[in-house]
Amino acid sequence: xxxxxxxxxxxxxxxxxxxxxPKFGALYEAxxxxxxxxxxxxxxxxxxxxxxxGRNVHLLGGVELKAFFYGAYFPYxxxxxxxxxxPCTPAVHPLSLHPRGVGRCLPALSGTNxxxxxxxxxxxxxxxxxxxxxSSYVIIAPFIGDLLWFVEDDxxxxxxxxxxxxxNTKGFQEPFFAGRPAKNGKFAQEKVAARHRIEHDLYxxxxxxxxxxxxxxxxxxxxxxxxxxxTYRVRPNTLRERDIRLVEEALLRDMQDGVAPLETSARMKIxxxxxxxxxxxxxxxxxxxxxxxxxLSEPIxxxxxxxxxxxxxxxxxSKWFSRERE
Length: 326
Fold this sequence. Notes:
By secondary structure, the protein is of the alpha+beta class. The chain contains 9 helices and 8 strands. A 4-stranded mixed sheet has the order 3-6-7-8, sandwiched between helices. Strands 1-2 form a two-stranded antiparallel ribbon. A two-stranded antiparallel sheet has the order 4-5.
């Protein structure tokens, strides 16, 4: 009896429906959504609202979640396409589909099939047998990327950076079978290396660099702080601009003097009638917008003195968002 592969064929059809072509902003649909039905069983799927794109972002696993919070903190990001399908056949440059790409002479993607052929990696392309009305044949399935960031430089010119995320550095070299060894270890390792090389070359051919990042690249404490700060992106400030600046100045002075924000808040309540929640909102939004520079590798606690910034996270992020090849 032939294996019934209709569910797999249906998944591929759904990916193509969502991604041919991929849209932008709130209309974009990830190839694989962060739901129990679609996400791999080995990861914890998470959806996070991202005001910049006006929708929930679909993230597959804890490291990808941390990577997202790092990337969303970078002030020059203006769009994100997560779980983007890598086209098997020639396709337009990802920026060509956006209004900011109109009028630009952008090279087309060759497609993973052509890249694999040029590298001699055709044997490593994923193949899916399909039964269709009694006919059986094999198709090449697309790879799915992780985080494709749309960024602008200091002149306002748009460019793209691709982040390839794995749980650890071994993930770029060895297959993962939930603890089970691969049947053909050597071939499986070659297949993993080929997959990452194909993705790298597909994007670099059109000037899009790929950063290969794993759990060791992300601090748990920084990610935890960024996660809290992210929740304040869309939270409104209910104070007048003048009072916001007054609270920020008080928080800055008290940070230098080793005074906790809770004490600042108590003083603001007496002097200006400003509530603790309002001070808390001003603090987090000011840290997020870098008007109050705190050390993100230390906990940001309301009842403890803030630690002034020692290491600027943007220095690391600027390298990860660089146009340079890794």
